[in-house]
Amino acid sequence: MRKVEFAVPSEVMAEFADEMANMNLENTVVGTNAESEILVEVMYEKEENKEVDALEEFLDDLRGQLEAQREREEREEEENEDEK
Description:
The chain is α+β, with helices and mostly antiparallel strands and 84 residues long. It has a single domain (2-83), classed as 2-Layer Sandwich (Alpha-Beta Plaits). 55% of the residues lie in helices and 25% in strands. The protein has 2 helices and 3 strands; from the N terminus they run βαββα. It has helices spanning 13-23, 49-83; strands at 2-8, 26-32, 38-44. It has a 3-stranded antiparallel beta sheet with strand order 1-3-2, with helices on one face. It starts with a strand and ends with a helix. The relative contact order is 0.20. The mean pLDDT is 95.
């Protein structure tokens, strides 16, 4: 059995967990890191390699969405400060 560890931002953990469940991948939450991301260990067989690759891409997409949201919020805060 193979293992891979994912560092998942807490803001997107629910979506990530849903995707893992949909793929029927065995997993364990093993802790957090210095950035307060949730560390998830996924155990899989060689035949499930495509699912794990898809999960990695899914997490990359979630991170991109999260970053875009944070940038929008920063701009809105700056605009609100400028209006004061």
